[in-house]
């Protein structure tokens, strides 16, 4: 479809993965591909290109096609949202999964909204001991509004479950629309884990502020395995490994947010660190080289595809502080990370976040991280 008209401010470009999710939902329910793609400007070739991007207006037209083709079933938004898994978001999903706390994950999500495929606008505030997130949909076309609010809120609950390893304990879950038929009301309750309150002035999700500082387990098994496999393939593409070296490198990738040391890995492999070092030497490798290989690959990819700050990358790669990471990056690339970003034309972490604003909530340490990144830019 033509996008030559002036686009609304929330219509930032997004990855093709969201279109693939919606198209697959339609195909699974018997819709034809041509009917789903009509007037969207999305082609079959784009669906097969992981680097393709679309405008939000194209996604909205795809949603219109999906609804009209399937007869506007009321549960379709919920079903769509439940298909957006953490791994749908690529390396950004790994970055979220490796966040130390729920507050850090929410902070990253609001900054990187253009990688979450959300079309709603969200505002998070703290009132007393509660966090209140308001999901605003007034800017959306009325004919797709219900689908999108259901899709986006369902997708959020899926992400929360995957990064927490369990459902988030909501205090209340409020919806603007009137109470639906009993069967649909039950579906909402099953999805949220608490009976929603219907007929409210706004769509709001409310949960205890104490959850913001809760450490994330990085332990949802299925998602963690998929993230590990994605990162393994990424590193494998840069440098092929076999034998003990491959096993060590894969172990370095297995636990998002925690890169183990040599003693930990050798213990897991039921050998001493001296024996492990001897095996690696026989294969022409060293533990330090494997660790540098993993860290340098993930650092450049997180910079390009998750757009984390230097401090956030350092944290996820197991560095004690951002200065040590910057020194390592200079050793790998010959330039500090700030200069590398400029050379590669990469945007900094200050990406478009207007659709999700945090008014009061700032996870501990982020002010320091910003200061450290300013120092890195001056390096």
UniProtKB/TrEMBL annotation:
Protein keywords: DNA-binding, Transcription, Transcription regulation
Matching SUPFAM superfamilies: Homeodomain-like (SSF46689)
Entry annotated with the keyword Membrane: no
Matches recorded under Pfam families: Arabinose_bd, HTH_18
Domain HTH araC/xylS-type, chain residue ranges per copy: 242-343
Gene3D superfamilies in alphabetical order: Homeodomain-like
GO cellular component: cytosol
Keyword DNA-binding: yes
MF terms (GO), sorted A to Z: DNA-binding transcription factor activity; transcription cis-regulatory region binding
Designated name of the protein: AraC family transcriptional regulator
Source species: Aquabacterium soli
Organism taxonomic ancestry: Bacteria, Pseudomonadati, Pseudomonadota, Betaproteobacteria, Burkholderiales
